[in-house]
Amino acid sequence: MQRSALPQIAHINPLSSLISLGFRSISVRTLTVEPVEGDDPLYADVPKLPRTKSERKPYPTPMKVLIQRAKEEREARKAQPCQMLETPPENGLLVPELIDVAHQVYRARQLLLLGISKLVNVIPVQRCRYCFEVHIGSVGHEIRTCSGPKSGFRSATHVWQKGGAQDVIYFPKCYHLYDRVGKPRVVHDERHSVRRIPAILELCIQAGLDLKKYPTKRRTKPVYCIEGRVVDFESVAGKDEMKIVSDLDESQMETKLGTRSERVWNSVSFDNLTKTDNYTVREEANNLRELSIMTLETWFEIISGAKKIMEKYKVQTCGFCPEVQVGPKGHKVRMCKASKHQSRNGLHAWQEATLDDVIGPNYVWHVHDLHAPALDNNLKRYYGKAPAVVELCVQAGAPIPDQYRSMMRVDVVPPGRDEVDLVA
Question: What is the SS3 assignment for 125?
Answer without folding.
Answer: strand
